[in-house]
Amino acid sequence: MTGATGEAPPPPEDARVTDYLDHLRAERGLSPNTIASYRFDLRKLEAWARSREQKLEDIKVRDVASFLAHLRALGLSARSAGRAVHAIRGFFRFLVREEKLTDDPMENVRSPRPFKPLPRFLNRAQVEALLRSPDCRTPLGLRDKAILETMYASGLRASEVTLLKTENIDPDIGLLRIFGKGRKERLVPIGSSALAAILRYEQEGRGLLLKKKRTRELFLNHAGGALSRMGLWLIVRRHALSAGVASILTPHVLRHSFATHLLENGADLRALQAMLGHADISTTEIYTHVTRERLRQIFDKFHPRA
To answer: Which of 13, 98, 175, 194 would you call most buried, defined as having the most Cβ atoms within 10 angstroms of its Cβ?
Structure first.
């Protein structure tokens, strides 16, 4: 029998798949979106098994390897394939627990490790173009200049920028007091250019934005309230367009640029870890890969026998 389009309707869902998804919904309390994703992955497995005239309960370890190869052939990313493995592993565990299956073919199958791309960053000329973008004749321009200078000079996360208070700045010794993830406190140096931009904004721009309101947050929106993360994103986006780096720049790319340029100039990895507020130095080590890749590009471009 065919549908209105002339195509055969998809086969009904295997009852065991339905039981498993009902279990996830009722007993595990997973969200509708997660249930839909798991159903999508398990239907893939059903279709693949059907194409081989194989029943789900007959799938063995070697068949799982063939199915994963099938997913790779479909062009699935490692992240999507990993999600499929997670869904299928849970499904077979459920069948074993419910005594509908004796052996679990997924018992020793590992999820594919997702490829971790190198962080993107701006080069020096792009940073200079970005920092020239704000119009410092206006209060909002002074604010934007101070924000961009601070982000590039200190490597703050977007949330840390929006939560920065006026009392968190020590202009005498050039330090910012930051409360990062988990409310962990750290001290971050800030350069003279960024500090000068902050002080000028405080003296000439912040009061005009604040009007008669009172707030401790350093960076304000046009109405005098605390700047939101979305507001920060829009500021960065606007000046990225003006500087011609819109295809690259996000608030986090400024953080990457800060870290990459410090390492390129000989900064110590442990010091960089402390400034970025990374709990584990393995997170910071991604920037050593960036600088190695940069060195390789320079070598390939300029060495006569590269």
So the answer is: 194
The CA distance from 192 to 149, in Å, is 10
Q: How far apart are CA 139 and CA 207, in angstroms?
A: 9
Q: How far is CA 210 from CA 35, 161, 200, 219, 232, in A?
A: 47, 18, 15, 10, 17
User: Among 120, 77, 104, 103, which Cα is nearest to 247's?
Assistant: 120
CATH 1.10.443.10 intervals, the chain: 124-302
Element (H, E) at 123: none
Return left, alpha or beta for 46; rule: phi > 0 is left, psi -120 to 50 is alpha, else beta.
alpha
* pLDDT tens figures, 129-172: 999 999 999 999 999 999 999 999 999 999 999 999 999 999 99
Residues 56 and 49: beta-carbon distance below 8 Å: yes
* CATH class of the structural domain 124-302: mainly alpha
Cross-strand bridge partners of residue 189: 175
Report long-range pairs for 33-40 (Cβ below 8 Å, ≥24 apart).
Answer: 37/83, 37/87, 38/87, 38/90, 38/91, 39/13
Interatomic CA distance for residues 102 and 131, integer angstroms: 64
CB 219 within 8 A of CB 168: no
For the record, the structure tokens of 84 come out as: 């499929």
Mean pLDDT of the chain: 86
CATH superfamily of the 15-97 domain: Tyrosine recombinase, N-terminal domain (1.10.150.130)
Catalytic residues: 157, 181, 252, 255, 278, 287
The strand pairing partners of 188, in sequence order, are 176
* Residue pair 189/274 in contact by the 8 Å Cβ criterion: no
Q: Where, residue-wise, is CATH 1.10.150.130 in the chain?
A: 15-97
Burial of 269 (0-12, 13-18, 19+ CB in 10 A): middle
